[in-house]
Amino acid sequence: MIEEIKNIAQNNFPKIIEVRRYLHQNPELSFKEFNTSKYIQSILSEHNISFTNGHVETGIIATVQGNNPMDKEILLRADIDALPIHEENEVDYCSKNNGKMHACGHDVHSASLFGTALILNQLKNKFNGTIKLVFQPGEEKIPGGASLMIKDGLLKNNPQACFAQHVYPDLPVGKVGFRPGIYMASADEIYVTVKGKGGYAALPHLLSDPILMASQIIQNLQQIISRYNNPGNPSVLSFGFIEGNGATNIIPDTVTIKGTFRTFDEDWRFKAHQKMKQIANSICESGGGSCEFDIKVGYPFLVNDEAITQTSIKAAKNYLGKENVVDLDLRMTSEDFAFISQKRPSCFYRLGTGDGKTVKRLHTSKFDVDEKCLKISSGLMAYMALMQIIK
User: Fold this and answer.
1) Residues 6+ positions from 301 with CB-CB distance below 8 Å
2) Contact of 87 with 95, CB cutoff 8 Å
């Protein structure tokens, strides 16, 4: 079966490149992927692959049914949204939409999943059950398209295994990476408005300085990690935005700070939220001000099912050779596929996309992939899905 899948993937390779480049040239932001959705629908229709649309507006669910469609269900997912980044690559397929770019590889994920659909559709007489292929909107934006599609009934048939892959520029093309168990962190967004009494900086005794209070909040909240968290549980609290709009001699009335909190323990996650609010409010009260502390709860931690991931590792070694399958480290980055992994047995793995020269980082204006990765991505996902449904 491996050689048959590889042959089909090779034959489809030019089409998958075409799809990837179209998507790359026409990126759309989270939950606004209307033209992207229409394009994916058109190529699925062109190749007689059944689908339903309108899931969370722009989401698409395609299905490939085997001999006994009700026997089992496997779910394969790709995300379709882009990022608000202006692309600086000098390539023929550079983004045509100013300020928007597929800087996280979702064009690769979607093109790969389409390629997987083509392979499975050609092999549908060789398996029992149904394979569901999900083109999901809004991975890059809270509350996450995955959570909304779950509410819309995505998992109603209790798929026995769910898969997603993600480009990984640190790995060269030809290699893939796996990690059984907990892999990626939860992610919450923190928005704080510190209110005081501004005025002339030369007369601080008449004021309640929100800049001083904000700086104390940023410093003191680090104790959440260093003194209240179990050292065995990796956690990150980072602030990337502070704005006061004062001047050298003017203290403003308000200061805004924004940050992110990430961890691998759901119980500790929400205890930390409460501790942050307590510390911030205490600082502001003692400084004569007040604080609005808003935490937007984001994605949970992502966990890979041990059994399914081990089966997938074995399948990947058979498909690529054991020397091309590597172990992954924990990552403090996040992914909304975590919502699926928390509810159904899942495997989220990494696809090598590096050219072995310069690593083009995710979420940057120069991100790109070595397109030879598309020779591997579709066939490997199809083979891993079949190994779950045939066994």
Assistant:
1) 182, 184, 185, 186, 263, 264, 265, 266, 338
2) yes
Nearest-CA neighbor of 125 among 50, 69, 66, 64?
Answer: 66
Instruction: Please choose, from the candidates 106, 117, 39, the residue with its C-alpha nearest in 3D space to the C-alpha of residue 337.
Output: 106
pLDDT in tens, 252-306: 999 999 999 999 999 999 999 999 999 999 999 999 999 999 999 999 999 999 9
Domains 2-184+301-390 and 187-299 share a fold: no
| Catalytic residue chosen out of the listed positions 81, 140, 265, 335 | 81
CATH number of 187-299: 3.30.70.360
Annotated catalytic residue within 33, 73, 87, 139: 139
- Residue 235 corresponds to which tokens in the numbers above? 């956690």
Of the candidates 91, 120, 127, the one whose C-alpha atom is nearest the C-alpha of residue 107 is: 91
Does residue 188 have an active-site annotation? no
Are 22 and 97 in contact by the 8 Å Cβ rule? The answer is no
Length of the chain, in residues: 391
Asked if residues 37 and 58 have their Cβ atoms less than 8 Å apart, the reply is yes
Check if the beta carbon of residue 34 is closer than 8 Å to that of residue 78.
no
- Is 81 designated active site? yes
**Could you please report the per-residue DSSP string of 203-259?**
-GGGSB-HHHHHHHHHHHTTHIIIIIS-TTS-EEEEEEEEE---BTTEE-SEEEEEE
Output the CA angle 203-207-211, nearest 5 degrees: 105
- Tell me the per-residue pLDDT of 302-314, one tens digit each, with 9 for 90 and over: 999 999 999 999 9
- What are 120-134's pLDDT values in tens digits? 999 999 999 999 999
Closest CA to 138 of 81, 100, 186, 60: 81
Burial of 358 (0-12, 13-18, 19+ CB in 10 A): exposed
> Which residues make Cβ contacts (< 8 Å) with residue 291, sequence separation at least 6?
192, 193, 194, 195, 213, 217, 280, 281, 283, 284
Instruction: Give the homologous superfamily in CATH for domain 2-184+301-390.
Output: Zn peptidases (3.40.630.10)
The predicted-structure confidence for 193-251, as pLDDT tens digits, reads as follows: 999 999 999 999 999 999 999 999 999 999 999 999 999 999 999 999 999 999 999 99
Q: Where are the domains of the chain?
A: 2-184+301-390, 187-299
